[in-house]
Amino acid sequence: MVVLLDAKYIRSNPEGVRAALAKRKKEVNLDKFLALDEKRRNMLSEVEQLKNKRNVVSQEIARLKKEEKDADALIAEMQQVSGTIKELDEKVREVEAELNDILLTIPNIPHESVPLGESDKDNVEIRRWGTPREFGFEPKPHWDIGEDLGILDFATAAKVTGARFTFYKGLGARLERALFNFMVDLHAIEHGYTEVFPPYMVHRHSMVGTGQLPKFEEDAFKVAGTDYFLIPTAEVPVTNMYREQILDGDQLPIYHVAYSACFRAEAGSAGRDTRGLIRQHQFNKVELVKFTRPEDSYEELEKLTRDAEDVLRLLGLPYRVSMLCAADLGFSSAKTYDLEVWMPSYGRYVEISSCSNFEDFQARRADIKYRPAPNEKARYVHTLNGSGVAVGRTVAAILENYQQEDGSVVIPERLRPYMGGVERICK
RNA sequence: GGAGAGAUGUCCGAGUGGUUUAUGGAGCUGGUCUUGAAAACCAGUGACACCGCAAGGUGCCGGGGGUUCGAAUCCCUCUCUCUCCGCCA
């Protein structure tokens, strides 16, 4: 499966690519890439000429044999040629593997609307909704609220499994379940997404397809004795549903919503957000995934972001939307909006959803195409996804934003039907 | 886990070593006929990728490897699907 992604594009416009990647503050060795690319093309034309000769002469041999004439000299010559072809093919394969290794580590090119910047400090706030509540008492962090109410149990999870896992209990477990049911229903019924319930494990090719591999293998959980990975997000199985496929143009756009558990090793985040639900090895998430025509993808990104925002609005949670600067952009993304919910214990907005347009970056890696019209050439689709939204962080936000002085937590009205009518979680 | 059968272009489906440079359908486009449509018939089209300014060339019949002057076709191996048996929530 040697897929030379967009070698042609890089070759024709190396300076443009270099400049775009510089925006990300990432070093990519394009010179090595360009040298290898030229080497490959030279070897390719050489070996292809030999193959042409082999094909022509083989026909000739067939003809001679049919006429019962002697072909021994030609056969001897072709033995030589075949040997050379074999050697050259092997060398071409090696160079292509090297090229592919480089290509797979080149991040997506930021969209022109994405601001420059050095770090997440340079992300640009787009809009805000809601007003953080003024507490007439000292608000507690969600881990204290949850433990005091007996609905979150971090200590038991540590005993049973380890750090960064949680038991939800009683109405806490129900709240988690109510939230993802509410979110899936909202997107499936009101926003027109088709619900999917995906496998929680995928093979390596799918992880490469969406861009988690090969660069970020240490972030994923690998299942021992298999070549499977636990999914870090439903984006991986759902986007790869259409891998190696050519869709009909009139099938687009495709909208999917998927609830799944997500598993992340959180390598390199030691010491960050160690308390509470913010950074867990396993968490639930409702994910939105879209497949669109290239010309529609940026409009679809705006709509997808609004669909995710609806969740927070309907739950009455104050949030803001910010556009990530080039330096903070994820590896596969061309443009990303983060939704950040107000978290009183942090005294700031905390990421709860990330909505991205990957343009054709994932489509190339996973080979997802569509035919614009019958008999037209197949083109790569654009893929998008966004959390709609992270469930554990939503529980944290509800506990903190809806906490009362007596330690109880009011359930947002819209959620009550999913909670069997429960209006408040009390001790 | 055991036994067997499969995997061919957008889809269906032929093809067991050299006019297969992949048969034939469906589909799609145009036409005839029709008030219009359908059907029928005629013609066209006929996958995808890479190299090349082009002419042209090369590769590709699930993936990888091998045999051969020559492989969709023979051999090995892996993956997946189906049928039967076993086990199992």
Relevant terms:
alpha+beta; elongated; 39% helix; 427 residues; RNA-binding; single chain; 12 helices
Could you characterize what this model shows?
- There is one protein chain.
- With 427 residues, the chain is an alpha+beta fold.
- It is built from 12 helices and 17 strands.
- The chain has helices spanning 7-12, 14-23, 30-66, 72-103, 142-149, 154-160, 171-190, 204-210, 235-240, 297-314, 361-366, 391-401, and strands spanning 124-129, 152-153, 167-168, 194-196, 201-203, 228-230, 245-248, 254-263, 282-292, 319-323, 335-343, 348-357, 368-371, 379-380, 382-390, 409-410, 424-425.
- The protein has an 8-stranded mixed β-sheet with strand order 1-10-11-12-15-9-8-4. A 3-stranded mixed β-sheet has the order 7-13-14. It has a two-stranded antiparallel sheet with strand order 2-3.
- The protein is elongated and about 100 Å long.
- It starts with 6 loop residues before the first helix and ends with a strand.
- It binds one RNA strand of 89 nucleotides through helix 3 and helix 4.
Topology diagram in text:
Layout: H1 7-12, H2 14-23, H3 30-66, H4 72-103, E1 124-129, H5 142-149, E2 152-153, H6 154-160, E3 167-168, H7 171-190, E4 194-196, E5 201-203, H8 204-210, E6 228-230, H9 235-240, E7 245-248, E8 254-263, E9 282-292, H10 297-314, E10 319-323, E11 335-343, E12 348-357, H11 361-366, E13 368-371, E14 379-380, E15 382-390, H12 391-401, E16 409-410, E17 424-425
Parallel strand pairs: 4-8, 7-13
Antiparallel strand pairs: 1-10, 2-3, 5-6, 8-9, 9-15, 10-11, 11-12, 12-15, 13-14, 16-17
Helix pairs in contact: 3-4, 5-12, 7-12
The structure holds one RNA strand of 89 nucleotides.
